[in-house]
């Protein structure tokens, strides 16, 4: 199994994914391999498509790497109550997806960007809600302080990376939505239900680290 105590292995896997260009305007006919449509061929995202970025924070804990997640508050307009990575819209003043991911992480959970070393990115992900999300992967070095934004974040928690990379913990689920059966990935962990776009990005992370 992978030596997940040392991030050097992660660096090697992301060696060809370190360049993260500034996100251009997204055309309405944009097509992405990864997204909610991957399991639902007739599902189309809401238009217009909006560029966004999230940080996939891999934390160097003494025993192994963990992944930091947020539980969103229940009153938000998008993905309310769901488990997610910190992130949001790419603003005109941002220097691209990596800058957006770091800024949003500082705003949402109070993690200072000086603790984060960007190692690369995952593939673009398009959820049904019409965002074009660039997941940016960063190694986070403790010690650090966190201060969640009470408006957006109900909880911050960590999950061992080894759990998320174990395909036995990946569930292909279904639910009725607007009169149709919809499929999605899920990775339940304790009382937390990681699913949807967040789980889809983790599947992509698993594929990349497996060399697929």
What is the topological layout?
Elements: H1 8-13, E1 34-35, E2 50-60, E3 65-72, E4 83-84, E5 87-89, H2 97-109, E6 116-121, E7 125-126, E8 131-140, E9 153-160, H3 161-165, E10 171-177, E11 180-189, E12 192-195, H4 196-209
Parallel strand pairs: 1-7, 2-8
Antiparallel strand pairs: 2-3, 2-5, 3-4, 3-9, 6-8, 10-11, 11-12
How would you sum up this structure, described in words?
- The protein has 212 residues and is of the alpha+beta class.
- The chain is built from four helices and twelve strands; from the N terminus they run αβββββαββββαβββα.
- It has helices spanning 8-13, 97-109, 161-165, 196-209, and strands spanning 34-35, 50-60, 65-72, 83-84, 87-89, 116-121, 125-126, 131-140, 153-160, 171-177, 180-189, 192-195.
- Strands 2, 3, 4, 5, 6, 8 and 9 form a seven-stranded mixed β-sheet that branches. The chain has a three-stranded antiparallel β-sheet with strand order 10-11-12.
- A hairpin with a 2-residue loop joins strand 10 and strand 11 (180-189).
- It starts with 7 loop residues before the first helix and ends with a helix.
């Amino acid at each position: 199994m992978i030596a997940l105590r040392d991030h050097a292995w992660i660096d090697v896997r992301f060696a060809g994914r370190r360049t993260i260009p500034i996100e251009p305007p997204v055309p309405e006919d944009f097509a992405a391999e990864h997204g909610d449509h991957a399991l639902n061929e007739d599902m189309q995202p809401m238009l217009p498509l909006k560029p966004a970025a999230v940080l996939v924070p891999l934390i160097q804990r003494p025993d192994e790497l963990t992944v930091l997640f947020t539980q969103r508050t229940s009153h938000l307009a998008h993905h309310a109550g769901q488990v997610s990575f910190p992130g949001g819209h790419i603003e005109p003043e941002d220097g691209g997806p990596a800058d957006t991911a770091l800024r949003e992480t500082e705003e949402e959970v109070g993690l200072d960007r000086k603790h984060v070393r960007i190692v690369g990115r995952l593939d673009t992900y398009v959820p049904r809600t019409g965002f074009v999300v660039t997941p940016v992967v960063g190694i986070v070095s403790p010690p650090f302080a966190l201060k969640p934004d009470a408006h957006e974040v109900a909880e911050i928690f960590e999950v061992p990376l080894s759990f998320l990379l174990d395909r036995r913990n990946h569930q292909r689920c279904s639910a009725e939505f607007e009169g149709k059966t919809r499929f999605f990935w899920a990775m339940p962990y304790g009382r937390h239900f990681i699913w949807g776009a967040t789980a889809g990005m983790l599947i992509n992370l698993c594929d990349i680290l497996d060399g697929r």
